[in-house]
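tl;dr need the bound structure. longer version: we got a ligand (S-adenosyl-L-homocysteine) that a collaborator sent over and nobodys looked at where it sits. i said id run it. heres the input, straight from their email, havent touched it
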Amino acid sequence: MDIKEMLQKIYEADFPAKVDLIALLKTDKDEDIEEIYQFADMVRKEYMGDAIYLRGLIEFSNYCQKTCSYCGLNIGNKKLKRYRMSETEILKAAELIYQDNIRTIVFQSGEENLLDIDWFVNILKTIKKKYSDIAITLSLGEKSFLDYQKLRDAGADRYLLKMETYNKKLYQILHPHMDFDYRMKSLAYLKELGFQTGSGNIVGLKGQTLEDLANDIISLKKYSYDMVSVSPFIAHPETSLSHIRNADVPMVLKVLALTRIVTRNPHMPATTALGSMGKDYRIDAFKCGANIVMPNYSAVEHKKLYEIYPNKRCLDENVGLCKNCLKGMAESVGRVIGQGRGDSLK
Ligand code: SAH
Protein backbone atom coordinates (compact mmCIF):
# COMPACT_ATOMS: atom_id res chain seq x y z
CA MET A 1 0.00 0.00 0.00
CA ASP A 2 1.36 3.44 -0.77
CA ILE A 3 1.18 6.32 1.67
CA LYS A 4 -1.96 7.86 0.17
CA GLU A 5 -3.87 4.58 0.37
CA MET A 6 -2.78 4.08 3.96
CA LEU A 7 -3.92 7.58 4.91
CA GLN A 8 -7.26 7.00 3.19
CA LYS A 9 -7.62 3.74 5.12
CA ILE A 10 -7.01 5.25 8.58
CA TYR A 11 -9.27 8.18 7.68
CA GLU A 12 -12.18 5.91 6.78
CA ALA A 13 -11.73 3.38 9.59
CA ASP A 14 -14.01 3.46 12.62
CA PHE A 15 -10.90 2.49 14.51
CA PRO A 16 -7.62 2.72 12.65
CA ALA A 17 -5.28 -0.26 12.93
CA LYS A 18 -2.34 0.24 15.24
CA VAL A 19 0.07 -1.27 12.70
CA ASP A 20 -0.96 1.30 10.11
CA LEU A 21 -0.45 4.18 12.50
CA ILE A 22 2.95 2.86 13.55
CA ALA A 23 3.99 2.47 9.90
CA LEU A 24 2.91 6.07 9.23
CA LEU A 25 4.71 7.35 12.31
CA LYS A 26 7.86 5.62 11.05
CA THR A 27 7.90 7.42 7.70
CA ASP A 28 11.07 9.40 7.29
CA LYS A 29 11.18 10.39 3.62
CA ASP A 30 10.42 14.07 3.20
CA GLU A 31 7.89 13.50 0.41
CA ASP A 32 6.01 10.88 2.47
CA ILE A 33 5.89 13.15 5.51
CA GLU A 34 4.63 15.94 3.24
CA GLU A 35 1.80 13.60 2.05
CA ILE A 36 0.73 13.10 5.67
CA TYR A 37 0.70 16.85 6.35
CA GLN A 38 -1.25 17.55 3.15
CA PHE A 39 -3.87 14.91 3.88
CA ALA A 40 -4.36 16.36 7.38
CA ASP A 41 -4.65 19.85 5.93
CA MET A 42 -7.36 18.61 3.56
CA VAL A 43 -9.31 17.01 6.42
CA ARG A 44 -8.94 20.21 8.48
CA LYS A 45 -10.26 22.28 5.59
CA GLU A 46 -13.21 20.00 4.97
CA TYR A 47 -14.37 19.78 8.60
CA MET A 48 -13.14 23.02 10.22
CA GLY A 49 -12.94 25.47 7.31
CA ASP A 50 -10.30 28.17 7.03
CA ALA A 51 -10.92 30.01 10.30
CA ILE A 52 -8.28 30.03 13.01
CA TYR A 53 -9.87 30.78 16.37
CA LEU A 54 -8.06 32.76 19.04
CA ARG A 55 -8.43 31.75 22.69
CA GLY A 56 -7.28 34.39 25.18
CA LEU A 57 -5.16 32.70 27.83
CA ILE A 58 -4.97 33.79 31.49
CA GLU A 59 -2.46 31.83 33.57
CA PHE A 60 -3.87 32.93 36.88
CA SER A 61 -1.85 30.84 39.34
CA ASN A 62 1.29 28.72 39.34
CA TYR A 63 0.73 27.04 42.70
CA CYS A 64 0.73 23.29 42.23
CA GLN A 65 0.55 20.23 44.45
CA LYS A 66 1.21 17.66 41.71
CA THR A 67 4.33 15.76 40.67
CA CYS A 68 4.23 15.77 36.83
CA SER A 69 7.92 15.06 36.24
CA TYR A 70 8.24 17.17 33.04
CA CYS A 71 6.52 20.29 34.34
CA GLY A 72 8.37 23.25 35.84
CA LEU A 73 5.43 24.04 38.14
CA ASN A 74 5.57 20.68 39.90
CA ILE A 75 5.60 20.73 43.69
CA GLY A 76 9.26 19.67 43.85
CA ASN A 77 10.47 22.88 42.17
CA LYS A 78 11.24 24.93 45.26
CA LYS A 79 13.10 27.58 43.26
CA LEU A 80 9.98 28.87 41.53
CA LYS A 81 8.33 31.95 42.99
CA ARG A 82 4.62 31.22 43.26
CA TYR A 83 1.83 33.69 42.46
CA ARG A 84 -1.91 33.89 42.20
CA MET A 85 -3.53 36.79 40.32
CA SER A 86 -6.02 38.92 42.22
CA GLU A 87 -9.64 39.22 41.19
CA THR A 88 -8.95 42.72 39.86
CA GLU A 89 -6.03 41.47 37.75
CA ILE A 90 -8.12 38.63 36.36
CA LEU A 91 -11.03 40.89 35.46
CA LYS A 92 -8.66 43.34 33.78
CA ALA A 93 -7.17 40.54 31.65
CA ALA A 94 -10.69 39.32 30.75
CA GLU A 95 -11.59 42.85 29.65
CA LEU A 96 -8.53 43.07 27.39
CA ILE A 97 -9.45 39.77 25.76
CA TYR A 98 -13.00 40.94 25.17
CA GLN A 99 -11.81 44.28 23.78
CA ASP A 100 -9.60 42.39 21.35
CA ASN A 101 -12.77 40.78 20.02
CA ILE A 102 -11.79 37.33 21.28
CA ARG A 103 -14.76 35.30 22.49
CA THR A 104 -13.08 32.52 24.46
CA ILE A 105 -11.14 32.96 27.70
CA VAL A 106 -8.97 30.04 28.80
CA PHE A 107 -8.12 29.96 32.49
CA GLN A 108 -5.11 27.82 33.23
CA SER A 109 -3.30 27.15 36.49
CA GLY A 110 -1.21 24.68 38.36
CA GLU A 111 -3.27 22.25 40.34
CA GLU A 112 -3.53 23.98 43.64
CA ASN A 113 -5.38 22.53 46.60
CA LEU A 114 -5.46 26.03 48.10
CA LEU A 115 -7.66 27.40 45.34
CA ASP A 116 -10.83 28.74 46.90
CA ILE A 117 -13.34 27.36 44.45
CA ASP A 118 -16.10 29.72 45.63
CA TRP A 119 -13.82 32.73 45.07
CA PHE A 120 -13.10 31.49 41.55
CA VAL A 121 -16.73 30.63 40.84
CA ASN A 122 -17.70 34.21 41.69
CA ILE A 123 -15.15 35.54 39.23
CA LEU A 124 -16.56 33.27 36.51
CA LYS A 125 -20.09 34.45 37.26
CA THR A 126 -19.00 38.10 37.09
CA ILE A 127 -17.36 37.55 33.71
CA LYS A 128 -20.31 35.61 32.30
CA LYS A 129 -22.72 38.31 33.45
CA LYS A 130 -20.65 41.13 32.00
CA TYR A 131 -19.90 39.44 28.66
CA SER A 132 -22.84 37.23 27.76
CA ASP A 133 -21.34 36.11 24.45
CA ILE A 134 -18.04 34.83 25.79
CA ALA A 135 -17.11 31.17 26.28
CA ILE A 136 -14.99 30.10 29.23
CA THR A 137 -12.55 27.21 29.07
CA LEU A 138 -10.91 25.87 32.21
CA SER A 139 -7.61 24.03 32.55
CA LEU A 140 -7.19 23.68 36.31
CA GLY A 141 -6.26 20.00 36.56
CA GLU A 142 -8.10 17.36 38.56
CA LYS A 143 -10.91 18.38 40.87
CA SER A 144 -13.72 16.56 42.67
CA PHE A 145 -16.98 15.90 40.82
CA LEU A 146 -18.62 18.50 43.06
CA ASP A 147 -16.08 21.16 42.14
CA TYR A 148 -16.46 20.41 38.43
CA GLN A 149 -20.18 20.80 38.95
CA LYS A 150 -19.80 24.15 40.73
CA LEU A 151 -17.61 25.41 37.90
CA ARG A 152 -20.10 24.22 35.30
CA ASP A 153 -23.01 25.80 37.18
CA ALA A 154 -21.06 29.09 37.28
CA GLY A 155 -21.14 29.08 33.50
CA ALA A 156 -17.85 27.48 32.46
CA ASP A 157 -18.39 26.00 29.00
CA ARG A 158 -15.31 23.90 28.33
CA TYR A 159 -12.60 21.99 30.21
CA LEU A 160 -9.18 20.86 29.08
CA LEU A 161 -7.55 17.94 30.86
CA LYS A 162 -4.82 16.19 28.94
CA MET A 163 -4.32 12.49 29.59
CA GLU A 164 -0.67 13.22 28.62
CA THR A 165 -0.17 9.56 27.63
CA TYR A 166 -2.67 6.71 27.31
CA ASN A 167 -0.05 4.24 28.53
CA LYS A 168 -1.07 3.82 32.16
CA LYS A 169 2.28 2.34 33.20
CA LEU A 170 4.20 5.20 31.61
CA TYR A 171 1.75 7.69 33.13
CA GLN A 172 2.40 6.31 36.60
CA ILE A 173 6.19 6.51 36.11
CA LEU A 174 6.05 10.11 34.94
CA HIS A 175 3.47 11.16 37.56
CA PRO A 176 4.50 9.66 40.90
CA HIS A 177 1.62 9.31 43.38
CA MET A 178 -0.90 10.40 40.77
CA ASP A 179 -3.74 8.28 39.44
CA PHE A 180 -4.25 7.70 35.71
CA ASP A 181 -7.67 6.19 36.36
CA TYR A 182 -8.89 9.31 38.15
CA ARG A 183 -7.66 11.47 35.28
CA MET A 184 -9.69 9.40 32.80
CA LYS A 185 -12.65 9.33 35.19
CA SER A 186 -12.46 13.12 35.41
CA LEU A 187 -12.81 13.31 31.64
CA ALA A 188 -15.95 11.19 31.89
CA TYR A 189 -17.33 13.44 34.68
CA LEU A 190 -16.65 16.53 32.59
CA LYS A 191 -18.56 15.08 29.65
CA GLU A 192 -21.40 14.02 31.92
CA LEU A 193 -21.65 17.60 33.23
CA GLY A 194 -21.97 18.93 29.70
CA PHE A 195 -18.57 20.57 29.36
CA GLN A 196 -17.09 20.66 25.89
CA THR A 197 -14.18 18.47 26.82
CA GLY A 198 -10.60 18.46 25.64
CA SER A 199 -7.73 16.08 26.11
CA GLY A 200 -4.47 15.22 24.40
CA ASN A 201 -0.94 14.00 24.78
CA ILE A 202 2.69 15.05 24.98
CA VAL A 203 5.02 13.71 22.28
CA GLY A 204 8.64 12.92 23.16
CA LEU A 205 8.18 11.75 26.73
CA LYS A 206 10.97 9.66 28.21
CA GLY A 207 10.16 5.99 27.64
CA GLN A 208 7.38 6.66 25.10
CA THR A 209 7.31 4.33 22.06
CA LEU A 210 5.69 4.63 18.62
CA GLU A 211 3.17 2.07 19.80
CA ASP A 212 2.28 4.37 22.70
CA LEU A 213 1.74 7.25 20.27
CA ALA A 214 -0.45 5.05 18.05
CA ASN A 215 -2.48 4.05 21.11
CA ASP A 216 -2.81 7.73 22.10
CA ILE A 217 -4.26 8.53 18.67
CA ILE A 218 -6.68 5.59 18.80
CA SER A 219 -7.89 6.60 22.27
CA LEU A 220 -8.38 10.23 21.17
CA LYS A 221 -10.67 8.87 18.45
CA LYS A 222 -12.46 6.52 20.84
CA TYR A 223 -13.42 9.24 23.34
CA SER A 224 -14.46 11.69 20.64
CA TYR A 225 -13.24 14.81 22.45
CA ASP A 226 -14.38 18.28 21.43
CA MET A 227 -10.79 19.54 21.63
CA VAL A 228 -7.50 17.71 21.22
CA SER A 229 -4.02 19.04 21.97
CA VAL A 230 -0.83 17.37 20.73
CA SER A 231 2.27 19.10 22.05
CA PRO A 232 6.02 18.55 22.25
CA PHE A 233 7.94 17.63 25.38
CA ILE A 234 10.34 20.45 26.31
CA ALA A 235 12.90 19.73 29.03
CA HIS A 236 12.72 22.02 32.04
CA PRO A 237 16.05 22.49 33.88
CA GLU A 238 14.49 22.28 37.36
CA THR A 239 12.86 18.88 36.83
CA SER A 240 14.08 15.29 36.95
CA LEU A 241 13.79 15.17 33.13
CA SER A 242 16.13 18.15 32.62
CA HIS A 243 18.64 15.95 30.75
CA ILE A 244 16.12 14.47 28.29
CA ARG A 245 16.17 15.63 24.67
CA ASN A 246 13.32 17.89 23.53
CA ALA A 247 10.73 16.30 21.26
CA ASP A 248 11.55 15.78 17.60
CA VAL A 249 9.43 18.39 15.78
CA PRO A 250 8.59 16.32 12.65
CA MET A 251 7.36 13.53 14.94
CA VAL A 252 5.13 15.99 16.84
CA LEU A 253 3.71 17.28 13.57
CA LYS A 254 3.14 13.74 12.30
CA VAL A 255 1.20 12.86 15.46
CA LEU A 256 -0.80 16.08 15.14
CA ALA A 257 -1.55 15.39 11.48
CA LEU A 258 -2.53 11.74 12.02
CA THR A 259 -4.73 12.74 14.95
CA ARG A 260 -6.52 15.27 12.72
CA ILE A 261 -7.01 12.64 10.00
CA VAL A 262 -8.38 10.06 12.42
CA THR A 263 -10.49 12.30 14.71
CA ARG A 264 -11.62 14.69 11.96
CA ASN A 265 -13.41 17.55 13.71
CA PRO A 266 -12.09 18.46 17.17
CA HIS A 267 -10.61 21.91 17.69
CA MET A 268 -6.82 21.45 17.70
CA PRO A 269 -4.34 24.10 18.84
CA ALA A 270 -1.01 25.06 17.36
CA THR A 271 0.45 24.97 20.86
CA THR A 272 2.62 27.69 22.37
CA ALA A 273 5.13 24.90 23.08
CA LEU A 274 5.50 24.34 19.32
CA GLY A 275 6.12 28.06 19.03
CA SER A 276 8.85 27.89 21.65
CA MET A 277 11.32 25.47 20.08
CA GLY A 278 13.65 27.86 18.29
CA LYS A 279 11.60 28.48 15.16
CA ASP A 280 7.91 29.25 15.45
CA TYR A 281 6.55 25.85 14.41
CA ARG A 282 2.95 26.95 14.98
CA ILE A 283 2.91 27.91 11.28
CA ASP A 284 3.76 24.31 10.39
CA ALA A 285 1.05 23.08 12.78
CA PHE A 286 -1.53 25.25 10.98
CA LYS A 287 -0.55 23.50 7.76
CA CYS A 288 -1.08 19.98 9.11
CA GLY A 289 -4.29 20.07 11.10
CA ALA A 290 -4.31 22.85 13.72
CA ASN A 291 -7.07 25.50 13.76
CA ILE A 292 -6.68 27.16 17.17
CA VAL A 293 -4.09 29.42 18.78
CA MET A 294 -3.89 30.83 22.27
CA PRO A 295 -2.52 34.38 22.69
CA ASN A 296 -1.35 34.99 26.23
CA TYR A 297 -3.04 37.76 28.24
CA SER A 298 -1.19 37.18 31.48
CA ALA A 299 0.93 40.15 32.61
CA VAL A 300 4.65 39.89 31.73
CA GLU A 301 5.67 39.18 35.36
CA HIS A 302 3.15 36.33 35.61
CA LYS A 303 3.95 34.88 32.19
CA LYS A 304 7.56 34.48 33.29
CA LEU A 305 6.57 32.65 36.45
CA TYR A 306 4.14 30.33 34.68
CA GLU A 307 7.12 28.35 33.48
CA ILE A 308 5.88 24.85 32.62
CA TYR A 309 8.83 24.64 30.19
CA PRO A 310 11.68 27.11 29.56
CA ASN A 311 11.99 29.79 26.84
CA LYS A 312 8.26 30.20 26.36
CA ARG A 313 7.76 32.46 23.38
CA CYS A 314 7.10 36.22 23.57
CA LEU A 315 7.81 36.37 27.29
CA ASP A 316 8.75 40.03 27.25
CA GLU A 317 6.00 41.07 24.94
CA ASN A 318 3.30 43.23 26.44
CA VAL A 319 -0.23 41.95 26.60
CA GLY A 320 -2.28 42.42 23.47
CA LEU A 321 0.54 42.43 20.94
CA CYS A 322 0.04 38.76 20.09
CA LYS A 323 -3.22 39.36 18.34
CA ASN A 324 -1.87 41.24 15.32
CA CYS A 325 1.10 38.94 15.03
CA LEU A 326 -1.21 35.91 14.96
CA LYS A 327 -3.51 37.54 12.43
CA GLY A 328 -0.49 38.01 10.16
CA MET A 329 0.54 34.41 10.72
CA ALA A 330 -2.95 33.15 9.83
CA GLU A 331 -3.05 35.23 6.66
CA SER A 332 0.41 34.06 5.63
CA VAL A 333 -0.99 30.52 5.38
CA GLY A 334 -4.17 31.59 3.60
CA ARG A 335 -6.43 31.56 6.63
CA VAL A 336 -8.64 34.04 8.46
CA ILE A 337 -9.29 34.76 12.15
CA GLY A 338 -12.53 33.13 13.30
CA GLN A 339 -15.29 35.33 14.70
CA GLY A 340 -17.48 34.39 17.66
CA ARG A 341 -16.99 31.67 20.25
CA GLY A 342 -15.89 28.88 17.97
CA ASP A 343 -17.76 26.16 19.84
CA SER A 344 -17.38 22.43 19.40
CA LEU A 345 -18.56 20.95 16.12
CA LYS A 346 -19.55 17.70 17.80
N1 SAH B 1 -2.63 21.88 35.97
C1 SAH B 1 -3.37 21.74 34.73
C2 SAH B 1 -2.73 22.48 33.60
C3 SAH B 1 -1.35 21.98 33.30
S1 SAH B 1 -0.36 22.90 32.19
C4 SAH B 1 -3.55 20.26 34.44
O1 SAH B 1 -3.01 19.44 35.16
O2 SAH B 1 -4.27 19.92 33.52
C5 SAH B 1 -1.02 22.40 30.64
C6 SAH B 1 -0.26 21.35 29.89
O3 SAH B 1 1.07 21.72 29.68
C7 SAH B 1 -0.16 19.99 30.54
O4 SAH B 1 -1.33 19.27 30.41
C8 SAH B 1 1.00 19.37 29.79
O5 SAH B 1 0.54 18.63 28.68
C9 SAH B 1 1.79 20.57 29.27
N2 SAH B 1 3.17 20.61 29.80
C10 SAH B 1 3.56 20.85 31.06
N3 SAH B 1 4.93 20.80 31.14
C11 SAH B 1 5.39 20.54 29.90
C12 SAH B 1 6.70 20.37 29.35
N4 SAH B 1 7.79 20.49 30.08
N5 SAH B 1 6.78 20.10 28.04
C13 SAH B 1 5.66 20.01 27.29
N6 SAH B 1 4.42 20.15 27.75
C14 SAH B 1 4.28 20.41 29.06
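gonna send this back to them w/ a short note. The chain has one domain: 29-337.
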